[in-house]
Write a structure and sequence with these properties.
elongated, binds adenosine-5'-diphosphate
Length: 594
């Protein structure tokens, strides 16, 4: 599978070093913010080193001297220190998150832009739910980690190094005892690295599977209802939900064992210090204040180690999200402009297929083979044939939704692969069977054909599409909202909006995929009339599903698995008694029966 291959080979196994290299540029626009955040984190780490030293002074110096004003002055100094610390903490808490949100914004921007460059095939092969969970959930985690991780690293390192230095100064032998525990902690946490990596990857995958299922069963809710398969869908959902639960439980098991182990080891360190330090104080080799300070520093020494090892957890989680981000971002589109691509401007619209062969993917059967077809500018051809013959496919090759494997397609003599994709798609208009309306007003939906079109042009387009009358009757006319939260238009009304869009777009080449479901006679007439108007002067391909609608077409192409097997006018094709005649007879018969 082409895209899955990209997923598993490239980004799925990227080493951390490379991922870091890919992630760092996201900090670049926010260097000031990052510097502020991290320097405040540094300050926080330093501030936390003061308390044990202060305690030592109070116990060893101030209390024995009985100097009450000195104690008060000391207290005031400490309050000031904590005021400063509070400011630092606020800055880290607020601006750190601002940094994270900014990075999240940029990551999301990049992945969204990239999505629109990807081949149509990517969308054939990737579930919407998968894309959604990568763009929404995974990036949220990543944003949190993008600032918490460096903050933690800095604070923890300062506390670690600072407390170590002070401990060495107070009593180096005792400090060495403490230090002996560090390698044990590191070795312990190293055993968890792979476990975390696998667990977090699996969490994200199972979550994405849930999203995928929700997306599908919601968009297909009518099918679910029509078949009364709610229980079946629910059971499938429960299965996915249970898989996620199991995956999550497995990872919190690791987290549980890991956290417990780390805490236990550092508590063990505390006991050792308490005992060894108590012994030293007992022997009189350290002062009482130094002993207390030491015990407080040890806590400040182990805590950052715990933080650091926990950062590893965070890092693995962020890495899992970033890998999934990169899987999409690293998917290269294959349909891109060639270096010297030319603009297709003011073209006439001659379309020529020569020796075209196409298949949807490696290992799949050829859908089209040796297709030769020449359509003159302004000509209208109707394409008919049994379903699955490749009518839709043939037409989707013209705007390069897919690239052909063999032969060439040219417009006005220029191979479409040498034209810029933007200008090619500007030159080709496509009216699809199921019209997609965006949420917004009727006006917005028509203006989609040419963004920024004037009200006058929009109304003219609606008129040409025979849509003006029904639009005027809508509650708010052109401003009526359609789409998910707006009024529901009938199939025929949607078709006319799509046709109005096309009048605005005004492309020299037109592809009409005739609606398969039959419309009421009035709509049908209105639509047929407006389509005739639309196709005037344009090279037009009509994918016809009902032969009645193309009886009068000047040129009918009959496409089967063997390519274009017949072409001509309706009467001639019927008289010649070939494939067309059989298709025609079948349709007439089904009409008579019904
Ligand atoms: P028609 O429009 O004549 O009914 P299509 O062009 O839709 O036929 O389909 C032609 C063949 O290509 C069918 O066998 C169909 O299964 C296959 N096909 C269509 N779209 C895709 C796709 N996106 N990926 C893989 N195969 C496809």
């Amino acid at each position: 599978h082409p895209y899955m291959a990209v997923y598993t080979t490239a980004a799925g196994t990227l080493p951390c070093r490379i991922m870091l290299k890919r992630f760092l540029p996201y900090y670049k626009p926010y260097l000031g913010l990052a510097a502020l955040d991290l320097s405040c984190a540094l300050g926080l780490g330093l501030a936390d080193l003061v308390f044990p030293a202060a305690t030592k002074r109070v116990v060893d110096v101030i209390v024995p001297s009985g100097d009450l004003p000195a104690l008060a002055r000391f207290a005031v100094l400490l309050v000031l220190l904590y005021v400063v610390r509070a400011v630092l903490e606020f800055v880290v808490g607020y601006y750190g998150h601002v940094l994270g949100v900014n990075i999240q914004h940029d990551l999301r921007r990049d992945i969204y832009r990239h999505l629109h460059t990807l081949d149509t095939r990517f969308f054939d092969d990737t579930k919407t739910g998968q894309i959604m969970s990568r763009i929404v959930g995974d990036l949220f985690d990543l944003a949190e980690i993008s600032h918490h991780l460096p903050e933690d690293l800095i604070m923890a390192s300062v506390r670690l190094v600072g407390s170590l230095i002070v401990m060495m100064a107070i009593e180096w032998r005792l400090a060495l005892v403490v230090f002996a525990i560090v390698p044990v902690l590191i070795a312990f946490s190293a055993t968890f690295r792979d476990k975390f990596r696998k667990a977090f990857k699996r969490n994200k995958e199972t979550m994405a599977a849930i999203n995928e299922h929700i997306e599908e069963s919601v968009s297909g809710v009518r099918v679910v209802r029509a078949f009364g398969n709610e229980d079946f869908e629910t059971a499938r959902f429960d299965e996915g939900n249970a898989t996620f639960r199991a995956s999550r439980i497995a990872s919190v098991w690791h987290i549980g064992v890991f956290n417990t182990g780390v805490s236990f080891l550092s508590n063990l360190g505390l006991v050792i210090v308490l005992t060894a330090g108590g012994y030293a104080a007992f022997r009189g080799s350290v002062s009482m204040g130094a002993y207390i300070a030491f015990a407080l520093y040890v806590a400040r020494f182990f805590q950052p180690i715990e933080t650091l090892v926990r950062s590893m957890e965070l890092f693995q989680e962020g890495a899992a999200g970033f890998r999934r981000f990169l899987e999409i971002v690293d998917t290269e589109p294959s349909i891109v402009d060639v270096p010297d691509a030319v603009e297709l401007a003011s073209i006439r619209g001659d379309v020529v297929f020569s020796g075209v062969g196409f298949r949807y993917g490696d290992g799949l059967d050829r859908v089209l083979e040796h297709v030769d077809l020449s359509v003159a500018a302004g000509e209208t051809v109707a394409i008919v044939g049994p379903s699955g013959a490749g009518k839709t496919t043939l037409c989707s090759l013209i705007p390069r939704f897919y690239d052909i494997e063999e032969g060439s397609i040219s417009i006005d003599g220029l191979d479409i692969r040498h034209a810029t994709i933007a200008s090619l798609r500007q030159a080709v208009g496509l009216v699809q069977q199921d019209v997609f309306l965006f949420s917004g007003s009727v006006r917005d939906n028509i203006a989609y054909g040419r963004l920024g079109a004037s009200d006058h042009d929009i109304e003219a387009a609606a008129k040409a599409a025979n849509a003006l009358d029904f639009i005027r009757e809508l509650p708010q006319g052109f401003e009526t909202l359609v789409g998910e939260r707006g009024v529901k238009l009938s199939g025929g009304q949607k078709q006319r909006i799509a046709i109005a869009r096309m009048f605005l777009k005004d492309p020299p080449i037109l592809i009409l995929d005739e609606a398969t479901s039959s419309l009421d006679t009035m709509s049908e007439l209105a639509i047929r009339e407006s389509l005739e108007r639309l196709s005037k002067g344009r090279t037009t391909f009509i994918i016809a599903h009902r032969l009645a609608t193309i009886r009068h077409a000047a040129r009918i192409l009959v496409l089967t698995e063997d390519g274009i097997v017949e072409q001509g006018r309706h009467d001639d094709l019927v008289n010649s008694g070939g494939v067309y005649k059989r298709l025609y007879d079948a349709q007439v018969e089904s009409l008579l029966v019904s």
